[in-house]
Amino acid sequence: MNIRRSAAILAATAVAVLGTGSVPVTALADDSSPSASPSRALPRGLYGSADPTYDGVWRQSLALLAQDTVGVKPAAEAVDWLVGQQCDSGAFAPYRADASAKCDEKTPVDTNSTAAAVQALAALGGHDGELGRAVRWLKGVQNEDGGWGYQPGGASDANSTSVVIGAFVAADDEPGDQKKGGYSPYEALRALSVPCDEDGGGAFAFQPDKKGKLTANADATAAAVLGALGEGFVPKAGAGDARTAAECAGGDDFSPEDAARNGALYLTKALTGDGYLKSSLAGAEDQPDHGNTADAVVALAAVGQKDSTARPLAWLEKNSGPWAAGAGPAAYAQLILAAHATGTDPRDFGGTDLVEKLNATGPEPTVRSTTTDADEKGQDDGPVFGVWWVVGTCLVAGIGVGFLLSGRTKKQQL
Prior knowledge:
This protein is mainly alpha-helical. It has 16 helices and two strands.
């Protein structure tokens, strides 16, 4: 889960609007949300000040989920705004400026916005009707391989499949029971796990390339580790079995949990050098990817590999301030979830109160909690989970677009 989805949303939306097989290349800063000024006043209740066209529902969902995770009751108008974005079909688009207008075939609904909204509304409670419609829509657009693409009918990818798994879990609907063409979402994810004896073995690919080859992608891997575990953006404590994979595992009995541990092993190795994951704009040098690093921390903690989170978490505490300030609510939410996953106090994250920073980007919460995450859990540390992923990297690459936006952007394949 991270801001990476903006790039995918932008790409997919452009395809839907233009109705062509090509999308104009759009340059986006690696450490911020789309920065173009909105053409109209921002709607009441929305978090963030950037144009919500491509990520309104996504960032709102993460903001509300992060607040709920740390004991903050979101403002009623913020929740109402999210609920009001839903189409009668149950699906969500990235943003509908006129939510009173009926959705039609031109409304760019997508699986990621819908699944993110499901996870947020399920956590908040009291939205059974909205959840039921959204889950039914997601089931109706499942692909024959058991997975989901960003838009209905699109090829399955690891990020989309994982965030939908998280939505089913949040709505108390067993993902493994949802099959299409005889395949479950878990089987779709396993099919995207790079074989151990290949380059990047253990990682997940976003999608196969045109020749069917799987290429390791850190963005997809961070998302798919959670999906393979059957977890969402805020996994329960001890989601994994705490077994640290010493080496990539395969074989005939290869399970989703094995795939998750393999993915975690890949992320651990990728973080060994500098303590952060990297991304790059087309033609630019490698640069730190704060959002994907935060997602990797969540994924590693979920698998039970808390020791592997220490270095990237420390790097985020030291270096994420300017990035989060520029990127806005979704970035603060990612950091809060990474802190929560590791039992770190999000109100003192490298000296920054992430909760206050997030709250300041939108309407005043109904109730502000002053209880620290560790106090709530009655412990100072431990893999307390509370997530993962737009889809962006390979979706963008898969449709020939070269643009990148903080965590939701096209990722460099590590």
